[in-house]
Write a structure and sequence with these properties.
single chain; alpha/beta; Rossmann fold; Methionyl-tRNA Fmet Formyltransferase, Chain A, domain 2; 2 domains; seven-stranded mixed sheet; 8 helices; 15 strands; 25% helix; elongated
Length: 309
C-alpha cells in the first residue's frame, strides 16, 4: 500500500522502518527543524533523519490547515496515513484524505490514558502492564475506534525510557498488523467506552519536583516515570538542583521527608519519604553527566542528616 507517514521523535523511527519494509512510503511528514539546546546548530527530527537516509520525500509544514499542504498530501494518493507521535492535531480534511483510513499508534491500552503522556503515566501510577493501541483517528483526542491493542507486563523498577523503547518496538509490530488488516479489508472498528476513559496530560515543570512527603513507593514510581526525560528534580542544601534518574524502595530506614538517612557504598544514598525510604542510585547535577548518587555525598554536596527538598 501507499503510506503517508506522520511522526517526529525517536519513538516513531522503528514503526517507520517496519512499515517501509512492507509498504511504499510515499512521504514523511515531520515537525519543523529546531535549534539544539545550545542554540548553535539546527537539529533534524529522528524521523527526518531516517527519511533522508532512505530517500523518502519529506514534508515539514508549519501548519496542517493550509490548502497547499492538503493539496500536496492529496497528490501523493495515499491509501493510509499512519501517525506515530507527530506532535500536532490532524485536521478533518487530512483525516478524510486517504483512500482507506488515517490511523494512529497510541502508547496505552485505550480508553485508558488518552492524551500526550500515556507511557509516563503508566509508570507514574505503578501499573503492572502497558501497551499500545492502533486506532482510527477522529477529531476528538484519542477517541477513535480501535483496530487492535497489544499489552505487555512492566517491571517494578522499569523507567519511562526503558518502557518507551519497548513500546516503540511493540507499536511497530502492531502497526504492521493493523495495516495488513486494512489492506485485506478485515480491520474492525471497535468503539471506545468513553465512560472508562482516563487522561494523561503533558507533565508540567512543577510536577517534576519530587514530593518527599509521599510514600516511598509513590516517590519511586514518580522518579522512574520521569526518567530520563523530563527528569525528576530535587534541591540540594545549597539550593542547586539535581535530577534523579534511578531509585529503589529500601526497607529498614526512616526519617523526616527528604532526610538523608544513610549512604550505602554499593547501592546509593538513602532518603526518607513520608512513609518508608528510597535509595537514590543515579543522579545528575546541573551541567554535569549522570553519575552514581553516592557521588553527591563523596563530592560534599549533601551528607547524612541533611535534606533533599
Amino acid at each position: 500500500m501507499r503510506i503517508l507517514f506522520m511522526g517526529t521523535p525517536e519513538y516513531a523511527v522503528l514503526p517507520l522502518k517496519a512499515v517501509s519494509e512492507k509498504h511504499e512510503i510515499v512521504g514523511v511528514v515531520t515537525r519543523t527543524d529546531k535549534p539544539n539546546r545550545r542554540g548553535n546548530k539546527i537539529e533534524f527530527s529522528p524521523v527526518k533523519q531516517f527519511a533522508l537516509e532512505h530517500n523518502i520525500p519529506i514534508y515539514q509544514p508549519e501548519s496542517l490547515k493550509d490548502d497547499a499542504v492538503c493539496e500536496a498530501f492529496a497528490a501523493l494518493s495515499p491509501d493510509v496515513i499512519a501517525v506515530v507521535a507527530y506532535g500536532m492535531l490532524i485536521p478533518k480534511r487530512i483525516i478524510d484524505l486517504p483512500r482507506i483510513a488515517t490511523i494512529n499508534v497510541h502508547g496505552s491500552i485505550l480508553p485508558k490514558y488518552r492524551g500526550a503522556s500515556p507511557m509516563q503515566y503508566s509508570v507514574l501510577n505503578g501499573d503492572e502492564t502497558a501497551g499500545v493501541t492502533i486506532m482510527y483517528i477522529s477529531e476528538a483526542l484519542d477517541a477513535g475506534d480501535i483496530i487492535l491493542s497489544r499489552e505487555i507486563p512492566t517491571g517494578p523498577d522499569e523507567t519511562f525510557g526503558e518502557l518507551h523503547d519497548r513500546l516503540s518496538a511493540l507499536g511497530a509490530e502492531a502497526l504492521c498488523d493493523a495495516l495488513s488488516q486494512l489492506e485485506a479489508g478485515t480491520a474492525p472498528r471497535i468503539p471506545q467506552d468513553a465512560s472508562k476513559a482516563t487522561f494523561a496530560p503533558s507533565i508540567s515543570k512543577e510536577e517534576c519536583i519530587i514530593d518527599w512527603t509521599l510514600p516511598a513507593q509513590q516517590v519511586h514510581n514518580w522518579i522512574r516515570g520521569l526518567s530520563p526525560i523530563p527528569g525528576a528534580v530535587t534541591h540540594l542544601p545549597d539550593g542547586k538542583l539535581v535530577k534523579v534518574y534511578r531509585t529503589k524502595v529500601i526497607e529498614g530506614y526512616a526519617g523526616r521527608p527528604g532526610e538523608v538517612c544513610a549512604v550505602l557504598k554499593k547501592e546509593g544514598v538513602v532518603a526518607a519519604c513520608g512513609n518508608g525510604a528510597v535509595c537514590l542510585v543515579s543522579a545528575k547535577l546541573e551541567g554535569k553527566r549522570e553519575m552514581p548518587a553516592v557521588e553527591l555525598v563523596n563530592g560534599h554536596y549533601i551528607k547524612i542528616g541533611e535534606f533533599f527538598g
